[in-house]
């Protein structure tokens, strides 16, 4: 698992390039709240928008999730805990006034970036 990146994955980089090209600036892999050990993939502090681009395997995508054939007694609870942690993170940030945007790694980067840009600009107004 050491070779699995926590940040700067291909889908993240593609979205970040497009968002940056649109003129928006953001923080990368930054914690939205002090004392909460979670980091957003893209963080727009002034508008309180936290963006997560979730991997299909690690976050159990409803379209692409697969059930591990080996060591399933380890993997199934781990993947379930990832889903629970995602929901908990979304709740915590929402309760603190943040807007949480979650996307899957298989989604088209241009569409994801367009949604992010529109949302951030809308919250600026």
UniProtKB/TrEMBL annotation:
Residues 81-114 form the DUF559 domain. GO terms for biological process: mismatch repair. InterPro entries: DNA_mismatch_endonuc_vsr, DUF559, Restrct_endonuc-II-like. Keywords: DNA damage, DNA repair, Endonuclease, Hydrolase, Nuclease. GO terms for molecular function: endonuclease activity; hydrolase activity. Pfam families: DUF559 (PF04480), Vsr (PF03852). Belongs to the Vsr family. This is T/G mismatch-specific endonuclease.
């Amino acid at each position: 698992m050491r070779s699995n990146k926590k940040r700067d994955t291909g889908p993240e980089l593609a979205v970040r390039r497009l968002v940056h090209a649109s003129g928006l600036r953001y923080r990368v892999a930054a914690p939205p709240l002090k004392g909460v050990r979670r980091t957003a993939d893209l963080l727009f502090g002034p508008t309180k928008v936290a963006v997560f681009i979730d991997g299909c395997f690690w976050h159990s995508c409803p379209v692409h999730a697969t059930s591990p054939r080996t060591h399933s007694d380890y993997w199934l609870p781990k993947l379930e805990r990832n889903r629970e942690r995602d929901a908990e993170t979304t709740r915590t940030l929402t309760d603190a006034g943040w807007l949480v945007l979650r996307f899957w790694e298989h989604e088209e980067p241009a569409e994801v970036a367009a949604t992010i840009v529109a949302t951030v600009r809308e919250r600026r107004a």
